[in-house]
């Protein structure tokens, strides 16, 4: 009989892990809260830096994991150690015993309404990065005007913000803002686009080229300064105030659309799960790996492994690579035991 | 007007709604590389004239986008071309300055 491996979370990490586990001859069982696989990636339109279609990526992956067991709209009720195995009880009454559990429960998008000064949920013309991706997918959102004259992006919303409870950089927002700014310019070439940033963190392959591209070929304006407040004008637009730190002067601009780059925060459900079985939680709220250099995929408990953004903010390629690494760690763990 | 013993100072706020970027756009048409400046300050740090006159090409490029008069600063340039040697984005800064002179001459 094939060995059961429980995968908690059916996002890109859980799907990639299931695919690799099938190749190695295991029986992966994905437990997913939503009614579909794909997690956050399924809500996105295109992925940086190659403008990869997230739907094509997920469709390809779905085809490769047809033999995996998938429980949708299902939650883990409890998880207990049982000898050298774990007994995972689901809320649909199913009981799974597995020697290895992979936690791939991902992250939550920061709730932009918590930054009250930006007016998300208050002003019609303020949306989030996720709202904009949904619009790229469906082209239906009453908040997005037909011919915007000016559009702004606010980097680091909920990230690098101790007051919001998150000291971490979300890593993906700078590049996502540049990607979305380019997409806006492609749809509305006459629109002025402003990115308000503290630092531009473009660490990955091709990210810096993406930035140069946005500046040179699309004329996106980059303003170094954190937006301090947003207010509504009488004609239903939004006025943004920031310091233009490179000239040392206050700056204001009126926009037809303001996009808040909500960052990644820990998934509170993951923390409930961690408490059930005694997994260490780091001070940023994400799961604590054995270390942050060499064994990111390993937990403080034998048989429990991590992949993707449950341990911290990650890009898609990082998440996929980690899922593969975690599968190999599981394989070594089971074959050496 | 009655003298109350005080005066109002002009707001220093940059208002991007009303800023006139004609000159900056003209520069970008003639020198597209002006757009890729990332304000690192290498040009100003290596500038022969900077320590005596406050010349800073980084500030010039930014000031043009904010519609501020850059001629006083620009007039201090000695065209040494040191900035061109250090620009990490490989902008031909000396050429860019000469282009600006040409724009202002018209």
Oligomer: heterodimer
Structural class of chain B: mainly alpha
Beta-strand content estimate of chain B = under 5%
**How much is the average pLDDT of chain B?**
94
What number of domains of chain A?
Answer: 2
Number of separate helices of chain A: 7
Q: How many strands appear in the DSSP assignment of chain B?
A: 1
Approximate strand percentage of chain A: 25-35%
The coarse overall form of chain A would be elongated
How many beta-strand elements of chain A? Answer: 20
Order of helices and strands of chain A: EHEEEHEEEEEEEHEHEHEEEEEEHEH
What's the Cα radius of gyration of chain B? 16 Å
Order of helices and strands of chain B: EHHHHHHH
Which class of the largest domain in chain A in CATH terms?
A: Alpha Beta
End-to-end C-alpha gap of chain B: 40 Å
Overall pLDDT confidence of chain A: 97
CATH superfamily of the largest domain in chain A: FAD/NAD(P)-binding domain
Structure characterization notes:
The complex is a heterodimer of chains A (337) and B (106). With 337 residues, chain A is of the alpha/beta class. Chain A contains 7 helices and 20 strands. Chain A has 2 domains: 4-106 and 267-336, 3-Layer(bba) Sandwich (FAD/NAD(P)-binding domain); 112-263, FAD/NAD(P)-binding domain (3-Layer(bba) Sandwich), CATH 3.50.50. Chain A has helices at residues 12-23, 54-64, 129-138, 173-187, 207-216, 268-277, 316-336; strands at residues 4-8, 27-31, 46-47, 52-53, 69-71, 76-82, 85-90, 95-98, 100-103, 107-109, 126-128, 150-157, 192-197, 221-224, 227-232, 238-244, 249-255, 257-262, 264-266, 304-306. A 5-stranded parallel sheet of chain A has the order 5-2-1-9-20, with helices on one face. In chain A, strands 11-18-12-13-14 form a 5-stranded parallel sheet. A 3-stranded antiparallel sheet of chain A has the order 6-7-8. In chain A, α1 packs parallel to α2 (54-64) and α4 runs parallel beside α5 (207-216). With 106 residues, chain B is mainly alpha-helical. Chain B has one domain (22-105). In chain B, 46% of the residues lie in helices and 2% in strands. The model of chain B has no long low-confidence stretch (mean pLDDT 94). The A-B interface holds A 150, 194, 200, 211-212, 215-216, 219, 221-222, 224, 244, 246-247, 249-254 and B 12-17, 28, 32-33, 35-36, 38-39, 58-59, 62-63, 65-66, 89.
């Amino acid at each position: 009989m094939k060995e059961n491996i429980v995968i908690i979370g059916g996002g890109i990490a859980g799907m990639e892990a299931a695919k690799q586990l099938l190749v190695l001859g295991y029986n992966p069982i994905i437990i997913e809260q939503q009614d579909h696989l794909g997690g956050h990636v399924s809500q996105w339109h295109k992925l940086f830096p190659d403008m990869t279609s997230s739907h094509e990526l997920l469709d390809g992956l779905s085809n490769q994991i047809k033999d995996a067991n998938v429980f949708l709209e299902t939650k883990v009720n409890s998880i207990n150690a049982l000898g050298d195995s774990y007994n995972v009880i689901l809320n649909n009454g199913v009981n799974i015993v597995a020697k290895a559990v992979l936690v791939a429960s991902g992250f939550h998008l920061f709730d932009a309404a918590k930054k009250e000064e930006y007016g998300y949920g208050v002003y019609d013309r303020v949306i989030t990065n996720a709202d904009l991706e949904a619009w790229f997918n469906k082209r239906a959102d009453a908040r997005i005007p037909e011919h915007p004259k000016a559009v702004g992006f606010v980097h680091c919303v909920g990230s690098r913000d101790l007051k919001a409870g998150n000291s971490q950089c979300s890593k993906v927002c700078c590049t996502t803002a540049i990607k979305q700014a380019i997409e806006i310019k492609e749809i509305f070439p006459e629109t002025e686009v402003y990115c308000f940033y503290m630092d531009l963190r473009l660490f990955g392959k091709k990210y810096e080229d993406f930035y140069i591209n946005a500046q040179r070929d699309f004329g996106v304006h980059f303003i170094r300064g954190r937006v301090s407040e947003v207010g509504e004008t009488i004609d239903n637009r939004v006025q943004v105030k920031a310091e233009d730190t490179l000239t040392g002067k206050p700056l204001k601009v009126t926009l037809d659309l303001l996009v808040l780059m909500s960052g990644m925060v820990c998934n509170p459900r993951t923390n409930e799960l961690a408490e059930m079985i005694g997994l260490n939680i780091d001070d940023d709220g994400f799961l604590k790996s054995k270390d942050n250099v060499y064994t990111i995929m390993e937990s403080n408990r034998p048989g429990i492994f991590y992949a993707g953004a449950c341990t911290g903010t990650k890009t898609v390629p990082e998440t996929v690579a980690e899922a593969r690494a975690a599968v190999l760690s599981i394989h070594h763990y089971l074959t050496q035991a | 007007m009655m003298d109350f013993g005080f005066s109002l100072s002009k707001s220093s706020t940059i208002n991007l709604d009303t800023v006139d970027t004609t000159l900056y756009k003209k520069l970008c048409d003639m020198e597209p590389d002006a757009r890729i400046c990332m304000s690192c300050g290498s040009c100003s740090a290596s500038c022969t004239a900077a320590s005596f006159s406050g010349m800073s090409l980084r500030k010039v490029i930014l000031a043009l986008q904010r519609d501020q008069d850059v001629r006083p600063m620009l007039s201090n340039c000695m065209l040494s071309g040191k900035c061109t040697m250090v620009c990490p984005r490989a902008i031909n800064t000396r050429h860019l300055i000469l282009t600006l002179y040409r724009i202002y001459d018209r």
